[in-house]
Amino acid sequence: MIEARMIDLNYNEILMYLGHRGQEITPEIETQIQKCIAEVRRHAAPRLVYRCLSVDKGSITGFPLEGNDIRQLLQNCDEAVLFAVTLGADIEQALMRHEVTDMADALILDACASVAVENVCDCFEEDVRAQLSRENRYLTSRFSPGYGDLPLGTQIQMCEMLNTSRRIGLTVTENFIMVPRKSVTAVMGISDEPQELRKRGCENCKMFSKCYYSQYIDICKQDCHVDV
User: Fold this and answer.
1) Residues of 2-27 as b/e, b for ≥16 C-beta within 10 angstroms?
2) I need a surface site. Which of 4, 83, 163, 210 has the fewest CB within 10 A?
């Protein structure tokens, strides 16, 4: 059984989430970022649930997924790992407090928490990959609902399949918002052959130009006067 874990947060990834493009970071902003990193580490309580299912001709048996991208990901696989991770309710409450008292802090804390939940996913992926390597098996990159042409609403079915509400306290609203917000659902394929790994990062996503989050960062930076 693989347990959820989180290692040191990647500072450069935090800057990326904040839309940093090489501008000078003032001592005040640096202090603010470090304060938010410490707050995330203090409040984060990573939890994980996962399940392995068989795959036939690029489709997960008993759990059909829409879209060509996911079928392409799984086309050479005979198994898939469905998983969900969350940072827990304390982070959610911290974000809500800052959204009321200081939006600049809220923006930076949100970026730090986003990096933290991806960190937990990275650690899980690394652990699964290491486990499979001992069996001469290989793992694809992970793929989440909302990425490419996999519908965002898929995370509702994934959470039901994994029973996330009972097992890790993660639910999804009818508008496809995960609660707690700093949570991730994803799929990874397992194969007997090495798999080409996809490039990571928002700018490699087909939906990048239409992504609300990328626009949200620019709006918040203007409103909150966060110049990083």
Assistant:
1) eebebeebeeebbbbbbbbeeeeeee
2) 210
Residues 46-60 have pLDDT tens digits of 999 999 999 998 899
Tell which residue, 42, 74, 82, has the closest CA to residue 184: 82
Q: Which two tokens stand for residue 79?
A: 């198994």
DSSP letters, 77-105, are -SEEEEEEEE--HHHHHHHHHHHHH-HHH
Whether cis (ω within 30° of 0) applies to the bond prior to 180 is yes
Locate tokens 């990959």: which residue? 129
**Alpha-helical segments (H) within 102-211:** 103-133, 154-162, 164-167
**Contact present, 80 and 187 (Cβ < 8 Å):** yes
Contact 108, 33 (CB under 8 A): yes
With contact defined as beta carbons under 8 Å apart, do 186 and 178 qualify? no
Mean pLDDT, the chain, whole residue set: 88
Alpha carbon dihedral 59, 65, 70, 71, in 10-degree steps, equals 30
Please tell me the pTM assigned to this model: 0.85
User: Alpha-carbon distance 140 to 122, whole Å?
Assistant: 13
